[in-house]
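REQUEST
  id: r-88c1
  op: predict_structure
  target: Lipooligosaccharide transport system ATP-binding protein
  payload:
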Amino acid sequence: MAGDDGATPLIQAEGLGKTYPPRDRRGTGFRAVAGIDFHVNRGEAFGFLGPNGAGKSSTMRMLGCVSPATEGTLRILGMDPARDGRKIRARLGVVPQDDVLDPDLTVRENLTMYGLYFGLPRRVIKERTERLLEFAQLEEKAGEPLGALSGGMRRRLTIARSLINEPDILLLDEPTTGLDPQARHVLWDRLFRLKQQGVTLLLTTHYMDEAEQLCDRLVVMDKGLIADEGSPQELIRRHSTREVLELRFRIDEHEQAAEKLHDLVRPGEGERVEVLPDRVLVYTHDGETTLAAVTAARMTPITALVRRSTLEDVFLRLSGRTLTD
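RESPONSE
  id: r-88c1
  status: 200
  body:
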């Protein structure tokens, strides 16, 4: 399997699967990843999008060479994780969901100790530590204990620490979960800079805006399978309309209003209506025109919003439920 430019991908997976053994003799194993195919090219930001339990983290653990695949083939940097796991891990940077920083060390010491873990010379560690502190915007916190850092700062330190060995591939598992919007945007900026420097990024997320901001390509996962793959723009174009009209009605009017809205769409042109518990979504190529038609039909929503289609709409189309389910 070759990349889009004809070069050999950094990562190739064919029929990749992971089944966990049963907890007792009477139980059956749990198939978290059900045989998936994908490839990742050098310098690409590649994402796994899906709800909790979709198989994203299990896939990342296989890519990080800490959990063996139970089916299919996987090649990372041209090597087999089952045979060359140590060599591959030496060229990976890993940012787990939860920070695993050492609370007894200062910010700078966390970077230094991780460099020693990789067996780097002290002069190299010193130079890289100062550079990474600047990259993570933590120079002023270098001598502080971890307790002095905000959640966003801790995530930036975790990413900086993962870069001490100058990895070819950086694995990020839910990198911005729990962060406030400002901290998320700062982190996105740092990751974008890494990509500009040629680092290959692999990330899992259930945030649609994050996937749109960071990923060149992504796969949408659900129940251990890949529902579709492509760039964010390709997926939106393939599975949705240009705009979405979001309407909220009184609870006692919700179902009746949804029935009337079906008469306003043009199914042959890809338009459709999705009825959610709290609102009705009208997928349309012209939201303002559709809203005018709603008004002309003497329907009076409590709120009306016209927005562009997003990856959340793609997921709703592919799996029939929202990413937060």
